[in-house]
């Protein structure tokens, strides 16, 4: 019995070693200046990605929800954006322990994910990305970030946070599922259009968003990016990658980190994949056939608590922080102190957005 136990432990050790070789999760950058995967930061950001699914905006705004604990304790929300017209939700805030502005985007609602996955099987590239030759992207993902109330509210909150906490603060963008796709466009937007230099993107269960030309541009402009994929999660396999047309098909950008569950889900092993975005030894080595793997990363739930579509809960005490436009889209905004001790203006004043 004792010998079998030692064989089991040695097998576990060998498995973990094979998935962690060549990485040092305690370092943020390699010797040549390239970003390195950091497990502790990942465990923090997955909690931020989970919290954005909360429908009680009062608890989310005050960071008292049951998902607002653990590594994210003490986080200050600056702004919550709820776009009822397109069923989108995001928030912006400051994590003082990370010296970073956190931007989190909500993914697809759990009740509609079956239809959403079905649509992605047939989705074709359909939008030329501005000022990037040959780069094409998914129209729906692009529109969700660029052509809704989300983008101006997020960028405005980032600027207010920088005025209050200093221009050198880091920016970390995260999201799960479709929220990961929106996080991609947000990170690129911050670099290309806003001139930000300290931008890091980490997504969970993100679908492909563009072709290989877009992936190349993106990896060059936002190199500090990690896509976390979980075991047989179906969504990172969508829209499908076609080997016969590598330049025309959807193509992931690097760097993928593939998380596998083993030994009855008691152990998770993380493999940092190559710099192609389509490493055949990572998630592409298995069939993407699991929705349950998509909805849970590192034991953290990444979906809404209820099946209600695009609904929120908010106490009347929060009315002074919130404004709606004529379509019912909502922004909750907190006034921040400026660097000189005065109060900065919020994005919203009396009246509609």
- From the structure provided, what is the oligomeric state, counting identical versus distinct chains? single chain
Could you estimate the helical fraction of the residues in percent? 25-40%
Q: Tell me the number of structural domains.
A: 1
Please write the string of helix (H) and strand (E) elements. Answer: HHHEEEHEEHHEHEHEEEEEEE
Number of strands: 14
Low-confidence stretches: 4-27, 345-352
Major beta sheet, strand line-up: 10-9-8-7-6-3-2-1-14-13
What is the correct CATH architecture?
3-Layer(aba) Sandwich
Give the terminus-to-terminus CA distance. Answer: 68 Å
CATH topology value: Rossmann fold
* C-alpha-based Rg, rounded: 20 Å
Question: What would you call the shape?
Answer: globular
Helix and strand composition category: alpha/beta
According to CATH, the homologous superfamily is Alpha/Beta hydrolase fold, catalytic domain
State the major sheet: 10 strands, mixed
CATH class: Alpha Beta
What portion of the residues fall into strands of 2 or more residues?
A: 15-25%
């Amino acid at each position: 019995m004792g010998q079998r136990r030692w064989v089991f432990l040695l097998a576990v050790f060998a498995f973990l070693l094979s998935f962690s070789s060549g990485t040092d999760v305690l370092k943020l950058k390699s010797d040549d200046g390239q970003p390195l995967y950091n497990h502790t930061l990942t465990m923090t950001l997955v909690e931020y990605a989970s919290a954005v699914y909360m429908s009680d905006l009062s608890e989310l705004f005050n960071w008292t929800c049951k998902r607002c604990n653990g590594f994210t304790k003490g986080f200050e929300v600056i702004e919550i954006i709820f776009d009822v017209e397109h069923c989108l939700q995001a928030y912006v805030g400051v994590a003082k322990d990370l010296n970073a502005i956190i931007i989190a985007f909500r993914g697809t609602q759990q009740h509609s994910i079956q239809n959403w996955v079905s649509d992605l099987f047939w989705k074709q590239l359909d939008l030329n990305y501005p000022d990037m030759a040959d780069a094409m992207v998914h129209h729906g993902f692009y529109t969700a970030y660029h052509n809704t109330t989300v983008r101006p509210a997020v960028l405005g909150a980032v600027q207010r946070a920088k005025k209050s906490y200093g221009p050198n603060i880091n920016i970390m963008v995260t999201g799960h599922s479709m929220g990961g796709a929106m996080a991609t466009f947000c990170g690129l937007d911050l670099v290309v259009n806003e001139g930000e230099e300290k931008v890091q993107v980490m997504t969970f269960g993100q679908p492909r968003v563009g072709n290989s030309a877009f992936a190349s541009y993106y990896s060059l402009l936002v190199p500090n990016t990690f896509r976390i994929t979980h075991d047989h999660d179906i969504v990172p396999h969508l829209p499908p990658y076609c080997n016969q047309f590598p330049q025309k098909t959807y193509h992931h950008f690097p760097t993928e980190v593939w998380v596998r569950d083993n030994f009855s889900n008691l152990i998770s092993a993380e493999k940092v994949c190559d710099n192609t975005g389509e490493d055949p030894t990572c998630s592409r080595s298995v069939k993407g056939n699991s929705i349950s793997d998509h909805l849970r990363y590192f034991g953290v739930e990444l979906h809404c608590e209820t099946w209600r579509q695009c609904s929120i809960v908010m106490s009347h005490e929060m009315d002074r922080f919130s404004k709606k436009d004529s379509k019912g889209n909502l922004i909750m905004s907190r006034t921040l102190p400026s660097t000189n001790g005065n109060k900065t203006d919020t994005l919203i004043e009396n009246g509609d957005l």
